[in-house]
Amino acid sequence: MKEPRALPAPGPLPDEQGALFLWVRRGIPLVAAALAFAGAALHGAGRGWWMLAGVGALATAWPSFLRKEAFLRNRTAVMRQDSLWAHALRPLAHWLGQEDAWILSFCGHNNQRVREAFSGLRAKRVLILLPHCIQMARCKAPILDDLQACYDCLCPVGDYMNGALMNRWEGRIFNRSHKAYREAREYRPDLIVAVSCSDRLLKGLTKLPEIPVYAISLSLPHGMCVDTDFSVPHLLAAMETLVEPRRPVGEIQPLHRAGIA
Ligand code: SF4
Fold this sequence. Notes:
By secondary structure, the protein is an alpha/beta fold. The chain has helices at residues 19-42, 47-61, 68-73, 75-95, 99-117, 156-167, 177-187, 198-207, 232-242, and strands at residues 126-131, 171-174, 191-196, 213-217.
């Protein structure tokens, strides 16, 4: 077993950038409801239909107000609806050249609600999901079979390995999204902390609406899927803020090897 290297103390979690998604997600139905009720007031004929449309628009906006326990209780339905909005407006965002900003805003809004939900009672059973493309393309260390095969040299895998050893994190590095979804469903965590590109984060939040996910986006300095990078301090801060510590006092334990994809 490797001797873990201490990582710098995590700072606070960065602010989430979810305002764009929230304004669109909540704003469109609220404006539609206001127009429908105005229509009902101005047009006597068909007033019932106007009222019905207004109530329907309010019902559409309602899930965007759910927070904390209410959000966790209704999470599957809330995330299904939010995902529909994210997917429906993605082509428009793409046309405007704001596709990434739109998806990351959806993730930021989700993160904000997950943070609120776990601000009082931290998650106990947590699964970290990382994409294989954070390993340098030229590195031959077989980290998918054994994370401790990593030499802790050049890429974020080394920092992650040390964090996992030191804190007894349960995590998977995966090379196929469907494997990550299957692992997540089988492990049944209270919370997933997922690192991925914006496209895969949207897909993951859509595919796993039943599990709260804190999403951290990859940066792609060399393009998609090659030598990608992410903020390890962000991951450390998320684990420190949202998750109940598992660190044993005066004792470091090895990773559960069979658990690493
Ligand atoms: S830290 Fe080094 S050995 Fe570990 S995966 Fe990255 S490049 Fe390979």
